[in-house]
Structures are given as structure tokens and as C-alpha cells.
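This section describes the prediction task in plain terms. A model, or a person checking by hand, is given the sequence of a single protein chain and must write out its three-dimensional structure as a string of C-alpha cells. No templates, partner chains or ligands are provided. The sample shown here is typical of the held-out split.
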Amino acid sequence: MPASGPLVEVAGQQETSPVPALRGLTLRAKAVLLFVAFAAFIALTLFSVGQQRGRLIAIAEDLERLHVVESTLARVSAASAAAVLKINDDGAFAEPRDVAQSVAIEIESLGPGLRVLGELFPGGPQLAARLEERHARARATSSRADLIDLRSEVNVLVARLGQSAVELRARKDRLWEGYRARYDEITLSLAAMTGAGLVFFGALTVVFFTRLAGDLRRLGDAAIAVVRGRREPIPVTRGDEVGRLMDSVNRMQEILREREQALEVTRQQRFHQEKMAAVGSLAAAVAHEINNPIAAIQGVAESIRGNCENAHCGNLGTQCHPDMILTHTKRIAQITRQLADLTSARSVEAEWVDLNSLLRSTASFVSFDRRLRHSRLDLDLDPAVPAVWSVPDHITQVAMNLVLNAADAIAEVSGGEGRVAIATRPNGEFVRFTVGDNGTGMEPGVLARAFEEAFTTKPAGRGSGIGLFMCKTLIERAGGRIAIASRPGEGTRVEVDLPTREP
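The expected answer:
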């Protein structure tokens, strides 16, 4: 029996393939999202280019205004120069009134021009007003002094117009430099954004299709693995149609695994039934052949005992042992009956079962196994336990598997006496029967996988790994529970709960 103390228990739940709890975007949604992102990128690019274009247009408008100002400045400068030349040429010989009259057109054209120059020529309107005033005075008085004052004002205007022309050219050059710099900036910005967009969307496309191709390749490999019999679930890392297809393949694998497990359990049940039927046929034949001579031996022994008792033979119990002969012949007859009872055909439907009687017969049958030859098989069956609702053959199969597993465990222990114990106890609405041993026990990693199909620690040829899995399946089908507790070096205890009510 396993040593006392807290042991790790395993409830034998079968792991299932991972199923994503949340669905992600579909491929169509991803395509729409990519299109929206691309459209947003184009809109952002156009917005940025539009802003830069607005600045270029503003510079162009400034240049256009400067061009108008430059043209006006040229006209005003030409009119001023013409007025100065006429005053200089005619002022020495002609009458001042005539000279003033000859420059009237030029003087009159200066006012509107100076007003157009605006901020480039501050004080222009005032200067135009003074020129008109001096021109009117020169025409009215015909004074040479007034003509000289008019010429002085025009000379001042010519000088200031020259200075303004220099400033205008410098301002125009700065605007042209700003225009070229802004144009280069727009070109570079557009090229950078286009390159960044190509790199980003290109990388996104490459990553998307690379991942899609990898997932489809894994899906294809999984499909081939299903055909070859492997049932490893595919990690579902997507939430789109491909992810749902992976999930469907995983569910298909799980369904196939469950069907194969059910078929394997059915095959093992059929094999067990056929094996027990063969043993039953052999036991019946052997019992038939044994019972006849046993009956004769019993008759002779009873005759000897009767004669000895009647004759008061002194050799009774010393040389003659008819009671010993009768005891052992009865034991032989009992063994043959137990074999016949255990191996007789049973119903495959659930029924009310006397668990103690069934376990007692099973223990008697497996006690002849050579693995239990040097070990104790103890029964601690509570007579107060009620009948259980189950398939008798299933209980026999489970009990035999558990006892023989215990026999294998104690066979690996060197030294000491091996012991297997079978016990029954009430457990609420269940009856619990336990099979314990003082064998090698199991490591935590082995214990965690004990109920997995095809998992075994036994050498090749000694175990298929289907025993405990089949026990779990049969017990759960009956509405029961099974759990294992074990520690290395302290043994193992298997607890099976069977229902005492019909489902």
C-alpha cells in the first residue's frame, strides 16, 4: 500500500485543442482596413503637398505683386527722369511757365504711381502732393525759383526711386530663393513620403502574405499528418478565415481522436470478451474433466471416513486423512466454479451489480497470475456497501487492469513483500473501490499523463498504454469517477467511484 501522507491526485481530464475565444478580423476586413490606411496615407500626402503648394502660391502671388510694383516703379522712374531732363534742357532758355507746362503730363502721372507703390515707397502720396503743389506754383508764378524747387523735388524723387528699385530687386531675389527652396522641400517631402509609403505598405504586404503562406503550409502539413494518424493540434494564431479553418482542422482532429479512442476502447472490450470467452470455454472443458475424478475422489474419501468412524479405526487422522482430501477437493471444485462464473457471458447493458462479489471473483481469478505469485492480494470489502449501477463486464475489466498494473509495479521493487489491496467503502451517492500497492510509485510528470491514450512507461511488448485510458473511459461512461494518487517509492492508489443510482 502507498505510504500515508498527502499525495498528488489526478482527475484524468483529457486536454483539448486550443480554441480561440475571440474572433479577429476577416481577410475582407483586413483588405478594407489596408485600403482605408492606404487612402488615409494618400490623403495625408495630398494634404501635406496642398499645404506646401499653398505656400508656393503665396510666394508666387508676392512675386506677382512685386512685378506690378516693379512695372509701376519703372513707369514712375521713367516719368521722373523725363521731367528732370525737360527741366534741365528747357529751364535755361524757355519761360518757367512753359517748362512747367511741358512736364505737366509727367508730374500728373507721378501721383497715381506713387500711391500704387505703397509700402515700398513710404511718404509717396505726400511727395506726390508736394510735387503737384510746386508744379502748380511754377505754372502760376512763372518763377524760375519755383521751377528750381520743382526740379529739386523731382531729383529727390529720382534718388529715392533708385533706392527703392534696389530694395525691390533684393526682395524679389529673396522671394525667388524662397520659392526654389520651398519647391525643393515639396519635392523632397513628396519623395520621402512616397518612399516611406512604399516601404511600409510593401513590408506590410510581404509580412501578411509570408505569414499567410506559412499558416497555409502548416495547415497542409497538419492535413497530411491527420491522414498519417498524427493528431497534434495546430497553434491558432489568427482570427480570420484561415484561423477559423485551423480551428476547424483542430476540431476535426479532436473528433477523429475521440472516435479512434472509442473504437480502441470497443476493440479492447471485444478482445477482453473474446479472451474471457476462450478462458471460459477452456475452464468449462477442464472443469468437466476435473469434476468427474474429483467426484470419485470425494466419494472414496467419504467412504473411508464413514468406515473409519463406524469401525473406530485408530488410524483416522494419523495415517488416514479423508477430511483433508475432502477439503482440497471442495477447494478444487470451488475454483472451477469461480472460473466458470467469472468467464461466463454477461450482459453488455448496465444493471445492478454486487460489487463485492464481482471484485472477489476477479481477485480470485487474477491471483493465479505469475506476477502475484510472491505477493499478497488482500481484500477489505465492506459488506454494507449497496449495489452499483454499471456493466458487470466493464467493472471486471477495470478491476483486472488495475490489479495487474499494481502487480507490475510491485514486481519492480527489489526486496520486501509486495502487497496489493482491494477495498470497498460507501462514498455518498457512490461506492468507492480502491486498488493500492506498495510498488515503485510514479513521478509527477508520469502521474500527470497517466490517463493519456498510448502513454506507457513499460518496455516495448509489455504495455500498450491503453489500460488506464480505457478504465477512465468505461468508468465515466457509467457515470463514475476515477483518480490516481501516487508518490515515487511509496506506491500508488487508484480510487474508483461507481454510482448507486440509475442515471
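For orientation: The first strand starts at residue 8 and ends at 10.
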